[in-house]
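cache lookup: miss for this entity combination. No prior model stored, computing from scratch. Input as submitted by user K.M.:
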Amino acid sequence: MFVYADNAATTSVSKAALDAMLPYLTEYYGNPSSLYAFGQKAAEALQEARETVAKCINAEPREIYFTSGGSEADNQAIISAAKLGARKGKKHLISTQFEHHAVLHTLAKLEKEGYEVTLLDPHSDGVIRVEDVAAAIRPDTALVTIMFANNEIGTVQPIAEIGALCREKGIPFHTDAVQAAGHMPIDVKAMNIDMLSMSGHKFHAPKGVGVLYARRGMVLTNIIEGGAQERGKRAGTENVAGIVAMAVALKESCEHMEENTAKIIPMRDKLFAELSKIPHSKINGSLEHHVPGTVNMCFEGIEGESLLLLLDDAGICASSGSACTSGSLDPSHVLLSIGLPHEVAHGSLRLSIGEYNTMEQIDHIIETVPKVVSYLRGMSPVWDELQKGERPHLI
Amino acid sequence: MALYSEKVMDHFRNPRNVGQIDDADGIGEVGNAKCGDIMRMYIKVDDDQVITDIKFNTFGCGSAIATSSMATEMIKGKTIDQALELSNKAVVEALDGLPTHKIHCSVLAEQAVRAAVKDYYDRKGIAYNPEDFREMDDEELHEHCGV
C-alpha cells in the first residue's frame, strides 16, 4: 500500500486546480502585460485569481501580490518592514526560535546588516505566549513576524491576540501562514495581520507559486527588480497558469475546510492514540492548538532517518527532524526550541495527513510504525542501555 | 538518483551480524547519542587471534547501520592484525560509496572495530602501543554536530 503522509512538505495538485490551469499553458498563453486582447485574456485571469485569493482571507484584491512561493513572500515581507523601520530609526525585529528558515535566515541576514533580532522561545507545548511578545516589544521595534502554524509540530499560534497587540502598538505584524492557509480560517482584518505569506503547493496548487498579502499602506521593497508587474513590487512575467490554479485550489480548500477537517481529525486522532501506545514515545506540540493534519512524535532509542527509510520500504512517505534527514548536522531547531534533548529529537517522526488520505492508510501506518520502531530498538545500543537502566529514560 | 547505493540499502535492509555476544572477548563502543549515532561491536577471538564471530548494535541513520554491517562482514574470519588494517575508505568502497555528509559513519565503523580490538587486548593483557589506539575522541569525531 502506498501512503503519502507528508502533506506538510507538499501536496498533490487537485483536479479542479489542474483543469483550471491547463488552458493557460496551451490556449491562453499570452503575456498579461501585452496590450492585445489575447494577452488581456491572461490579465483578466490574473485579476480574477487576485479577487478569489483576497476573498479567501478577507483582504482586498490590491493587497495580494503573487510570488514564487512562501519563501519569497517571507523574504519580501521581512525586508520591507525592516527597511521601512530603518527609515524611522527602528531597527529591532521580533520573531521566534521555531520559524521556517525562510524567516530565520532572512532575519540573520538583516542582523549582519545592523538590525537587532529578538527570537522568542515557544513554550514546551509549541505555542508562543502573547505576553512574551508584549515583553519583547521596544520603542524601536520595526516588525513582529510569527508563524501562523508550525510546519513541523503543527502548533497554531495566538495570531489574533498578537495581531491586536501589534496594531495597538503600531508595529507591523507579519505571519508566515504557509501551513495554515487552506487548512484553517484566516481573516486578515479580524486578526489585524499586516502581511501574510502563503504557498500554493501546501494546499493542492502546483509548486512555484505563492502569495504575499500586504495591507494597504504597507510599503513593500522589491526583492526582484525589473518590470512593473504586481503593482511594481514584484517583477517578472506572472506564472499565470500557476496563479490560476492556486486561486482555484485555495477557494476549493476554504469552501471544503469544515468537511476536510471533519475527515482529517479522526484519522489524526487515531494516529496519536495508537502510536502513543508505543512505550517511551512522546507527542510533540499542544493538541489543543493544532492544525488538523500534522502528527509529530518522538520514539526514544532510535534515529529518524532509518525509521523513514524503513517506512518508505512499507510504502509510507513521512519526514523526520533528525539531523541525518535535515541535511544539516543538528536535529530540528523546532524540536530543540520546545526543549527536547538532542538524543530524543533524533528519533522524531512527522506524519502530515490530508483529506485525500483514507482510514485504511492510517491503519497501515499504525500497523507498520510500531514494528519498525521495535525492530530498530532491537539493534540500538541506546535502547539496550535504556532497558538495562544504564541510561535514564528521557521520555 | 537515490540517496544511497543499492549496496548500502541492501546492508541497511538486511544487516549482517546484528546482535550481541554474551561471552565476547572484546566490546567496542563509539559515538554519542546526542549526535545521533552510536556503534557497539562485539568480537569473539580464538587462540590464533582470528575473529571467529562478530556482532554489532547500532543507533543511527541508514548509513550508520549499513557501514556497521559491512565492517563486520569484512573482518569476520580475519585476524586481529587484518582487522586493524580495515580503513573507513575500504568500507565506503565496499558499499559503492556514501554521500559526503555520511562519510563520518564509515569513520565510526572503523573506530568501533579498533575499540573492540583494544578492549580485547586489555582483557587478555596483550601489550600494544597506545599510540596505535589514539582514539579520535568524541569531540573530534563529532565536531560536525556541534554538541
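stored under new cache key. The interface with chain A takes residues 9, 12-13, 15, 18-20, 29, 33-40, 56-62, 64-65, 101-102, 144-147 of chain B (CB under 8 Å).
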